[in-house]
Amino acid sequence: MKAINHLTPKQIVHELDKYIIGQRDAKRNVAIALRNRIRRMMVKSDLQKDIVPNNILMIGATGVGKTEIARRLAKVANAPFTKVEASKFTEVGYVGRDVESMVRDLVEQSINLVKEAKNEEVKEKAAENVEDVLLDILIPPVKAPGFSTGRSTSTSSNGDFDPEKASEQELNEKTRERFREKLRNGELEERKVEINVKQSNPVGVGMIGNGMMDDASMAGLQDMLNGMMPKKTKKRKVTIAEARKILMEEEASKLIDFDEVKEEAIHLAENNGIIFIDEIDKVAKSSKSGNGPDVSREGVQRDLLPIVEGSAVNTKYGLVHTDHVLFIAAGAFHVSKPSDLIPELQGRFPIRVELDNLTQEDFSRILREPKNALTKQYQALFGAEDVSLEYTDDAIEEIARIAFKINEDVENIGARRLHTVMSHLLNDFLFDVPDTIEANSKIMVTKDMVGERLSSLVQNRDLSQYIL
Ligand SMILES: Nc1ncnc2c1ncn2[C@@H]1O[C@H](COP(=O)(O)OP(=O)(O)O)[C@@H](O)[C@H]1O
Ligand SMILES: [Mg+2]
Asked: What does the entry list as the binding residues for ATP (predicted)?
C-alpha cells in the first residue's frame, strides 16, 4: 500500500495555501480531520476501531472554495475522492441515483489510484518486456544450438555442436543487439510493425439492464460477460512509437496482480477515502416551506445516514465498509439551516466551518497567487503559441473590482465570476492569435484596456446578466 502521507496539520494547510486564498478556518479543520486519520492509524489498541472520522460540514456561499478545498485535500493526501450532489439522489425505490453509488464511485477512484501506483512500480520491468516483444517482431530469434536429438547421422556422441548453426545464432544475436540499441536510441520510432491488439468486447449489458438493476449488479454482469467471451485479437500495423504505448499497457497489466489491486483499493477507499457531498442544504427541510416535497428530502437524508454512519456497501470489487471514510458535506444554507437536517445526520457532521465571503482584495489575490491562477492559465495558453501575455498590477485590481461589482449587482457566484470576466476580457485576443497576432508578439493588459472592454458591461445590468 502507498505510504500514508505524514504531513502535519500545519504542512497540510501550507499545501492548501498554494491553491486557496483565505478560508483559514476551513483549511485548519480539514487539516485536522486528515491528520486525525493518520493518528488513528497509529493507535495500537482496540480503540482504533472506535475512532470515527470527524466529518465536516462546510457552510458558505457558492464559489468561495468549498469544493476546491476538499479536492485539494484529497490530492495532498493522495486519497481517493468523489464528489456527489445530495440533490441528485432520490429515495430508495424511486428512479434516480441511489446513495450507495457514491461508495462505488469512490472505489472506482481508488482502483485508479492503486493501478497508477502499481503501473509506476512495474514501469521499468514492463518497458524491458516491451523492448523484448518489439525485438522479437523486428528480428525473430533463432533457436539456440544445443543438444539436438534430430541428427542421427552425426557420429559424434559428445553433443551435436553445429558450427553453422552456431554462427547463424551468433549473427542473429548480434543483429538483435544492434536493433536493441537502435530501439533504445529511438531511431526506429517511425518504423511500422504488425502487432496483435486485444479487442474490447462489443457486447454491453447496458441495454438489457434498462434500469431494472442497480449499477453494481450491472457491472458484475458485464464483467461476467467479458470473462465468458473469448478475447479477440486483431493484427494491426502501427509505428513502433504507437506499438510501445499499446504493448506497455499489456505488459504492465501482466505484471500486476489484479486481485491485489482490488484488495488494496478497497483498503485505501475504506481508510483514506473522502466523499464530498455537495448541496446538502437542498435536502434539508426548510422551516418555511410546506410539507410537499420535504418528505422525499428527508427520505434522502435517511438513506444517507447509514452510509455516513458506517455500513458495508456491495461494489463490484467487493464489500466496502464506510465507517472510516471521511465525509465532507457542503451547502450554502441560504434558505434552510444546518439545524433543519435530521438530528442523526447533524450528529454525524460534528465539525462546522463557515467559509468567508470573498472580498475584492481576495479576488485580486485569487487572480494572481494560486499555482493554477487564472492569469497564469491564460499566460500558458498564449505561451503555447509563443505569444507573451502580461498584466499590469492595476489591470488586475480593475478586473477584481469589476468581478466583485458584477457579483453585487447581478448575482453572487463568488470566484467563478473571475472566469467569465477573464474570458470576456481576453476573447478577442484568443481569436486573433495566431492570425493577426503572430508568434513572438507581446500583449499587455492594462487598466485602460480592462475598462474599455468591460465597462459597458458593468454599466448595463441586462447585458452583463447574459454575457458575464
Ligand atoms: N478561496 C479561493 N481561493 C482560490 N480560488 C478559489 C477560491 N474560492 C473559489 N475559487 C475558485 O473558484 C472556482 C469555484 O470554486 P469552488 O470551490 O468550486 O466553489 P464552491 O464553494 O461553490 O464549491 C474554482 O475554480 C476555484 O479555484
Ligand atoms: Mg461547489
From this structure: 21, 63-68, 278, 344, 416
- Give the closest residue to 64 by CA, choosing from 341, 406, 358: 358
CATH of the domain at 414: 1.10.8.60
Whether the CA torsion 98, 99, 104, 106 is positive or negative: it is positive
Helix ranges (H only) for 322-415 are 343-348, 360-368, 374-383, 393-409
CA of 280 to the centre of ligand 1 (A): 18
Q: Are residues 294 and 318 located together in one domain of the fold?
A: yes
Ligand 2 ion local residues (Cβ < 5 A): 67
Q: What is the pLDDT of residues 218-275, one digit of tens each?
A: 666 777 776 666 667 888 888 999 999 999 989 999 999 999 999 999 999 999 999 9
**What is the reported pTM?**
0.83
Cβ 100 vs Cβ 84: under 8 Å: no
**Which of helix, strand or coil describes residue 19?**
coil
Assess whether the C-beta atom of 273 lies below 6 angstroms from ligand 1.
no
pLDDT at 52: 83
What values do phi and psi take at 328, rounded to 5? -120, 115
